[in-house]
Amino acid sequence: MPIDQHGDAKLQGLSLRRLPKVSLHDHLDGGVRPATILDLGDAAGIDLPETDEGALADWFADRADPGSLVEYLQTFDLVIASMQTRESLTRVAREFVEDLVADGVVYGEVRWAPEQHLGGGLSLDDVVEAVQSGIEEAEDAADGAGHDIRVGQLLTAMRQSDNSRDIAELAVSWRGRGVVGFDIAGPEKGYPASRHREAFDYLARHFFPTTVHAGEAAGLDSIRGALLDGRALRLGHGVRLAEDLEVVSSEGEEVFVRFGDLARWVRDREIPLELSPSSNLQTGAVERWGRTMEDHPFDLLYQLGFAVTVNCDNRTMSRTSLTRELHLLTEAFDYGLDDLEAFQLNAAAGAFLPIEDREELIEIIGEGFDH
Hints:
Layout: E1 2-4, E2 21-27, H1 34-43, H2 53-63, H3 69-74, H4 76-81, H5 86-102, E3 105-112, H6 124-144, E4 150-158, H7 164-173, E5 179-185, H8 197-205, E6 210-214, H9 220-228, E7 234-237, E8 245-251, E9 254-259, H10 261-268, E10 273-275, H11 277-282, H12 298-303, E11 308-310, H13 315-318, H14 322-333, H15 337-350, H16 355-370
Parallel strand pairs: 2-3, 3-4, 4-5, 5-6, 6-7, 7-10, 10-11
Antiparallel strand pairs: 1-9, 8-9
Helix pairs in contact: 5-6, 7-8, 15-16
Organism: Microbacterium koreense
Keywords: Hydrolase, Metal-binding, Zinc
EC number: 3.5.4.4
């Protein structure tokens, strides 16, 4: 299949922050403000590596850039240790949504692993309730300030643990009360989706939507497992799906690409890819193609018609926002306003919402970009 190179459309003088955005792949413990980590860590008696907000932000950014998903994930230990009480979870969730509002997000899904927040004696239901309280407080405050935002929880099971069935049951029990989907995360290599087949079977029987981290630290087999064992409706990252594409020739400004069966299946069924450009570079997920944003296969996937979406993954570790990610992509690939709108429409179409709400969200995005 041929693809065309971009023209010279540029975004001059446009405030990307004001554009309506949809955030599908954003971790709660990856988006805690450094100042909040200092407060909560001090209250919990945690030995923090830095005592200054700016220095702590630098510490996270430096240690989250090793080119390894496993090392990248180790930076979360400190944050999670400070999120073991109702008050801390509610505060983090409230501030998380406040930061989405400031970034122009109109719909977001926040993913997090309840099992990692039981150290203070709370139950699984307690921690979900605490996070939901923070979300609703921020939604109400935003509404009072004239910004309409809706945020749903994605409950995550850790793929190296054995309690995914419990988390699946927890997610279904909170359906209609703030939880909109299920996810598995953690070290991808050696922990395939098939280990959690019982949980995915349970979710399928209850028609509960799932997204699965796949195609980040592991390749095509991991993506197959997410689709076949996990019944994933979206792929968390999924960037290594590009390994199933072969550039066979170039003629002038046209590049001809051959699809593998897996890539064609994902493209033809419009399964959204939750791409996180900065994070993908940090974790080494795109090392096969290079180490700069211009090397990221985002543009190849986009031009070939995949349902690409733009995400932060972990705002603190990547020191980023959706606005920044869109800016970086625009600089790398010369995108115009229509391209940025397409990314938001893809995300809206893939949101774990009823069709009526997705259609309303699509209208909000269209009106916002028109203005």
